[in-house]
Design brief:
Two copies of one chain form a homodimer. Chain A has about 325 residues and is of the alpha/beta class. The first copy, chain A, is elongated and about 90 Å long. Chain A contains twelve helices and twelve strands. The first copy, chain A, folds into three domains: about 45 residues, 434 Repressor (Amino-terminal Domain), CATH 1.10.260; about 130 residues, Response regulator (Rossmann fold), CATH 3.40.50; about 130 residues, Rossmann fold (3-Layer(aba) Sandwich), CATH 3.40.50. Chain A binds a DNA duplex (16 and 16 nucleotides) through helix 2 and helix 4.
DNA sequence: CTGTTAGCGCATTCAT
DNA sequence: ATGAATGCGCTAACAG
C-alpha cells in the first residue's frame, strides 16, 4: 500500500553524503557546514521528507507525547478541557493523544494500554463513572510515567490532581436557593464511586445544616450520569407527597435534562421548582429558562493539568510531587432559580 | 525519568528462551508449545509487559493507526463524528489519533505533519474554514496514504468523500418556510471557501426560484463561522428597511446564536421572524423556542468515513476509488418556525 | 517447535 | 565538518 517513504538515507544517497550528516543538518546540530545544511534542507523539502516518530520514539527515552483519557466527549466539558491541555502540550513541544472511554471501564483499561504502547511520557486522566479498580493506572506510576488527574480524580492514588471548589460551589448554590426562600431542596447527585459527587454533596449538606434545615434522605438521589435515567429520578421527585421546591443537580447536562422533564410535566420553573446546575457549560445560558449554575474554569482545568504533568515529567520519580490544585468556582444566577 | 520498560528480551532471559519464541507466544503464532506460551503469557502479565508501538510501527509497513483532522471540537458535531469513526476504527483494530485545528489553517498544516510523522495508515479530514491550499493534504496521496473527506470536503481532490444531502436539506427547509407563509427569507451562509456553503445555498436559491420568489442579494450573507460575528449579520438583517420574516442558517450553532440575538432585540420567534438551522445538534431541542432544523446523521458520518478509509487502506494506490457517499437528511419541524 | 540473524529509521557515540 | 558503527524493541526469514 504505502510507497517507499523518504528517509534520511535517500537524502544522503542523493547528495552523496552520509546519513549522519543529514541527520545533523535536519536536527539543527551546530557541526554542519552551512552549505551542506542548506542542500539537505532543500532536498528534504523537495522530497517531502518527514521524520519518522516511531524510530525516534524507539531511540529516545522520551516520546514527546502525552495522553489524555476522558470518560466521554459528547458534552462540551471534556472537549474544552482537552483544548486547554492541548494548548499547553503544544507550547511545550508535546503531542497529545486523546482517548475517550464512553463511560466504560473496560474501554478505559484498553485505552490505558494503548497509551502505554505509545510510550506516553505522561498521562492526564478523568475516570469513567464505572472505574473503581485502578490497577490499569497504577501501572503507569510503577513504570515511572507520571499521571495527573482532573475533574474525576482517584482518591486512592497519590498524584497531582486538579479539581474545582466543588464543596464551596455547591454550598453557594444551595445557600442561594435558601436565600430565595426554598425549603425543600433536592439533590440529584452523581455516582457514589466518584469523589466529585461526595464533595458536591457535602457542600449541599452543610449549607442545609448551617441554615437549620434537616436533610431529607428522600430528597437525595445518586445516579450514574446516564442522561436518559434523569427522567426516572426527576419524576420520582415530582411525585413525592411533599414535592421539593428546588433541585440542585450534580452538573449542567443533568440540570438541563431536569429542566426539560419538569417543563414536560407542566410545572413552572422557577415558580414551582427551581433548578441549579454545576459547570456553566455553554448551553446553559441558551436554554429556557437560562440555568443558574456554578461556573468552573473549564479550559483552565486542562491547562493546569497539563502544566502539572509537564512539570512532573521533568522530575525523577523520587522528586515527584502530588499537589491538589483547586480552581475557583463562581455562582452564576440566571432565571431557573 | 522512565525506569527500564519490560521488553521481550527481559521475558526471554528470565525464562531462558529466545526473544523470537517470546514474540511468537505473545503474537499468537501457532508454532509455539502450549506450555511455553503459557509461561510467557504468565510472566508477561506479572512483569506488566506492554508491546512497544514504536518498534512495531518501525518494523511493519502498517502502523495500524488512522488520523482524524477536525477544524474544532467545541460544538457537539465533530466529537460525535469522532465517536462514530472511533467505533469503526476500533473494530478493525486501528487506533485513532485526533487532532483539532481550532479553525486555523496553519495549525491544520502542522497537524497534518504530525499525522505523517506518526505514519498513519490513512487520514480522515474535515477542513478548517481557512483552508484553500491543499498541498499539506495532497502529500498524503503522493505518499500512498489514503484520505477520506467528510462534511467539509475538498472539491479539488479526487478521493472518497462523505457528505449529506445538503442541497435537498436546505431546499426542504426553505420550502417549509415558504409553506408557512414566509416571503422574505434570509440566508446566513458559511464561508465561500467551503463547498458545503454552496450546496446549502443552492438548495435555498432553488427553493425560492421554484416558488417564484425573487432571491434578494441583501438577504444573503456569507460569514466565517466565527460565532461572535453572527451578531453583526443578524443585526444587519433586523435593521433592513424591509426586514426578513425568516432566516435560514448554515448550521445549528449559527441558528442558536441567531435566536439568542433576535430574542435580545425583543422580536418574537417565530411570530416576527422564523429561524431554521441545519444539523440537529443535541442542543437544538433544548433551546427556547426549540429549533426547526435539518437533521443529519452525525455519528453515521464518522462511521461511513472510517469504513471508506479502511477499505481504501486495503487497496493498492492503483485500485483506489473515489466515491462520494451522500447521507440522508430530514427536516425536523419545531417551534422556531 | 525453537534459535539466530537481519533490519525497520534515526540519533549518537567514536573516529577521522 | 563528516563518516562509520551501534542500538532502541520488535518481527520475519531462515536455519535447524
Amino acid at each position: 500500500m504505502k510507497n517507499h517513504q523518504t528517509t534520511i538515507f535517500d537524502i544522503a544517497r542523493e547528495l552523496g553524503i552520509s546519513k549522519s550528516t543529514v541527520s545533523r543538518a535536519l536536527t539543527g546540530h551546530p557541526n554542519v557546514h552551512a552549505s551542506t545544511r542548506e542542500k539537505v534542507l532543500k532536498l528534504a523539502g523537495d522530497l517531502e521528507y518527514q521524520r519518522n516518530m516511531y524510530s525516534i520514539g524507539l531511540m529516545k527515552k522520551r516520546s514527546h507525547t502525552i495522553g489524555i483519557l476522558v470518560p466521554e466527549f459528547t458534552r462540551s466539558f471534556f472537549p474544552q478541557v482537552i483544548i486547554g491541555a492541548q494548548e499547553r502540550a503544544k507550547e511545550a513541544g508535546y503531542n497529545l493523544i486523546i482517548a475517550q472511554s464512553d463511560e466504560s471501564y473496560e474501554t478505559e483499561v484498553a485505552n490505558a494500554k494503548v497509551m502505554l504502547a505509545y510510550q506516553v511520557d505522561g498521562l492526564l486522566v478523568s475516570m469513567t463513572r464505572e472505574t473503581n479498580n485502578f490497577d490499569h493506572l497504577k501501572i503507569f506510576q510503577r513504570k515511572g510515567i507520571p499521571i495527573v488527574f482532573f475533574n474525576r480524580v482517584c482518591d486512592e492514588m497519590i498524584v497531582p490532581k486538579v479539581i474545582v471548589e466543588d464543596y464551596e460551589g455547591a454550598y453557594a448554590a444551595v445557600q442561594h436557593l435558601i436565600d430565595r426562600g426554598r425549603k425543600r431542596i433536592a439533590h440529584l447527585s452523581g455516582p457514589e464511586s466518584l469523589s466529585i459527587s461526595h464533595r458536591r454533596k457535602s457542600g449541599y449538606m452543610d449549607a442545609l445544616k448551617k441554615n437549620n434545615i434537616q436533610a431529607d434522605n428522600d430528597l437525595i438521589v445518586h445516579y450514574d450520569l446516564s442522561l436518559p435515567k434523569v427522567k426516572i429520578y426527576v419524576n420520582y421527585f415530582l411525585t413525592l407527597p411533599d414535592r421539593p421546591d428546588a433541585i440542585f443537580c450534580i452538573n449542567d447536562p443533568t440540570a438541563i435534562e431536569t429542566i426539560r422533564i419538569i417543563k414536560e410535566s407542566g410545572l413552572r420553573i422557577p415558580e414551582d421548582i427551581a433548578v441549579v446546575g454545576f459547570s456553566n457549560d455553554y448551553v446553559s445560558h441558551l436554554i429556557e429558562p437560562p440555568l443558574t449554575t456554578v461556573e468552573q474554569p473549564i479550559s483552565e482545568m486542562g491547562r493546569t493539568a497539563a502544566d502539572l504533568l509537564l512539570k512532573q515529567i521533568e522530575l525523577s520519580v523520587e522528586q515527584w510531587k502530588a499537589p491538589t490544585v483547586v480552581l475557583k468556582t463562581k455562582l452564576i444566577v440566571r432565571n431557573s432559580s
